Amino acid sequence: MQIICVSRGSFGYGNELAEKLAQKLGWDCIPRETLTDSATDQGIPVGKIESAVLKRHPITEGLAIQVEMMKAFISAQICERAMEKSVIYHGRTGHLVLPGISHVLRIRAIANDEERINMTLRRMPSLTREKARKYNDQVDEDRRRWVRTLYNVDWEDPSLYDITINSLNMTVENSASALVSVAQLPDFMETPASRQAVRDTLLASRCRLAIGRDDRTRDVSVTVKADHGNVAVTYLPRQAKQAAVIPEVLSRIEDIQSIVCTVATTNILYIQENFDPDAPSLEQVIQVAEKWNASVELIRLLEGVEAARVEARSPIVETSYRAANGGILDDTSTALSHEDDAEGVAETFDKLIQVGRANTVRTIAGGTQGLLSGLNRAEKNSLVVVGDVFLSRGASVQKRMRRDLISFLADHLKVPIISTEDLKSHYLFGPKQWLHMALYAVATIVVYLAVFNNQEAILEFLTKPGTGHRVLSAALVALFVPMTAWAYGSFTRYVLKLIKLE
Amino acid sequence: MADIEGNKNNMNEIFGNQFIELTWSIALQVTFLGFIGGMLSGFIGSGGAFFMTPGMMNLGVLGNVAVASNITHKFGKALIGSRKHAELGNVDKKLSIFMLITAAIGIRLAVWLMKLVSGGGDGHESGVGADLYISIVFVVVLSMVSLSMLKDILNTRKGNGSGPSTRIVDFLSKFNLHPIIHFQVADVKVSLWVVLICGLATGYLAGTIGVGGFIGVPAMIYVFGVSASVAAGSELFLAQFMGAFGALSYAFEGMVDIRLVLLLFSGSLFGIYIGAYGTKVVKEIIIRMVTAVIILLCVFSRIVNIPRYLQQLGYLDIDPAYNNYFDLASKILLYASGITGGALILIYVLKAYFQRRKIQTSLTTGVSSKQTGPIPESSV
């Protein structure tokens, strides 16, 4: 089934467009308000969240959990309906509610300023034209803040939309007619892989809602992901006791192949084409994950022939890594039937489970562009590690494309992107770091010895009268202090890095 | 530091009572103050000076020298911290620079007032005036901060609020004082006048009691509506300039004791990392509770010293013998607050640190993927 998500501004145009489009296509139309009303009925405090965001109140831990519940509720509702029938959803964050589903057509509907003012005046006749303009500006500001707070992206970022429709020169009728053609393009048709993505989004959302609705786990802050029925849950170390019952809570949910629960404060994305459990780069990723208390998500990036093969797979690919077993995975379940097994993905994932760093595994087809649309940009990751990709290319092309991929990701994701080669020098402790630490230690010791062995002379110099001398001593203090802080601060940073307290 | 003891007599002859005689014991205590202050600073996200400044004063350092040395230390510390925040995109330079304009004026005002109340900043008698002035500002400002924090915590616990009070934001949003400036990184629009007033207050308090961050960060969050991470990053960016300006101003007046600055560094630059680590493993409400209680104890520590200063200045007629008791009570309260807060943070940090190691050990050695059955609860 197909999905269209319309991101709309205030008053009229987006709603009208979505409804007209639904009418022309014969699809179901779901306005945001219907879903938020249902969410409120089910105990999710949507009004409180809106009030907190719009009034710039800080989002506390408790409210952040409710935000996740609201997002999960909306995703679940859309996905449930999209499993049965093609749907059109419209709301202020229409383009963001279903991340990672490639066949969603994301439309931005904008009306020109004058038209919006007229619409505002029709609804609120008591306003003057100038006040209506200010009102619209305020509404836009509120939406910007809403999107930034909830999804950490810019509302107006054009790369988040497939198409933008402006009401200036096109009527609603004509816009809808044009979009009917766009919706029928093969790019927005459901594929087995994208249908699986809908299933996974639905499953992850249901799991999130189940955790939030259970009295024992409602206060646990978790991230939930699903891939081919394999559910990965991460939670904070301090909530380990409450989170221990998560597998039991999720056991009632259908379609779960396995559950992995990992204690993690953050997440690392590890992108490769093939994974090798014995590769030194995996060891390094695990070391960084252990230091940061992070989980590791494996992303297998495919392109060309391999990508086409993945796309052509049956709708439900059997990728049961392990059966769910009290939050961990046992080794008695059936052997992996996924082709990834041959590529070492399963063994790599097993290794991550053994060291308690596993998150989930995903295969993303379509090279660089496919990766960007397959990743959830609102997701909070701390690091993206890019390993060997584009393996079908020649060595030079591979190198260049990989470099391009790193800079492309750096432009679009607000997290550090690093190659496996640079991982050690940037985040781990090696001979180079020992040398740096020693140099900073020596510099610090020299400074301290010099000062404390010559206290009298130094203080005399710093308090000597005379304007010229006062200026000189002030300038020297202003130079000396940051240099000492830098040397000693660098030394302490290396020491804490060494003992993995970062 | 080998000649510390030997320098005592010469020090007094040359500098009068301007600088403290540095013994090993005092040096270790200042380092400890730096460590606790740094840890609190990393844990709370700002401040630390509220503990270090009175702590040094309790060791016999003159108020103006304690403030001067602390603000100079803050300069270096903020330089390191803001570099890290800038890497994470948490610094709104435009906002910091706008605030800096009036913050610089605030610091100059603070230095001028300090010089005024200390009668030129030379000698112990005149230093008592500065001590009294610093203590009064300290008590007034930090009582308000800690009490409002405690009130917000109680409201949150009762379920009456989604977080700290935002009455100021709501109040200011009713006015539309032009020009309104848009700060892109922080993603807020604020009246220039509000920014300038907050900058002045931040600068004045940084220059007077060395706790600009305690005003700067809440002002950015509650008055401007900036997110907590951007507020902390932008305040540190601002603090490095305020620190530089404060350091230059106080160094020009000859009030900076560079030895104290180095000793504070030796503790704080370790402590700040440990405190920052603590924020990741401790519940938000506990962070706020610990912070409020520590500040309140520091406030009491200053309050009990005020009668001593008043007596020394001749405003209060009490037996000078009581001064030792006031001093002792002040020290006990201060150290109790610092040690309790520091110990709590350390316990949480070490617990999380070793729990993390235990989790890894259990999974790699105790449970392999070849075994069946659940992981022991202790290792989950």
Q: What is the helix content of chain A? A: 40-55%
Note the total helix count of chain A: 20
Radius of gyration of chain B: 22 Å
CATH architecture classification name of the largest domain in chain A: 3-Layer(aba) Sandwich
Largest sheet of chain B: 2 strands, antiparallel
* CATH fold field value of the largest domain in chain A: Rossmann fold
Mean pLDDT of chain A: 80
Structurally, the number of domains of chain A stands at 3
Provide the number of structural domains of chain B. 1
**Low-pLDDT stretches of chain A:** 312-338
Distance between the termini of chain A: 46 Å
Largest interface: A-B, 76 and 83 residues
In total, how many beta strands of chain B? 2
Descriptive account of the structure:
The complex is a heterodimer of chains A (502) and B (380). Chain A has helices at 13-25, 32-41, 46-54, 61-84, 113-123, 129-151, 172-183, 192-213, 240-243, 246-250, 280-292, 304-311, 340-343, 345-354, 367-374, 395-412, 420-427, 431-453, 455-463, 467-498; strands at 3-8, 28-31, 87-91, 104-110, 163-166, 222-227, 230-235, 258-263, 266-272, 294-302, 324-325, 328-329, 358-365, 383-386, 417-419. Chain A is of the alpha/beta class and 502 residues long. Chain A folds into 3 domains: 3-188, Rossmann fold; 192-427, Rossmann fold; 431-498. In chain A, helix 16 (395-412) links the parallel strand 14 (383-386) and strand 15 (417-419). Mean pLDDT of chain B is 73; it is low at 1-9 and 360-380. With 380 residues, chain B is mainly α. Chain B starts with 7 loop residues before the first helix and ends in a 14-residue tail after the last helix. Chain B has a two-stranded antiparallel sheet. The longest helix of chain B has 45 residues, at 322-366. The chains are: A alpha/beta (502), B mainly alpha (380).
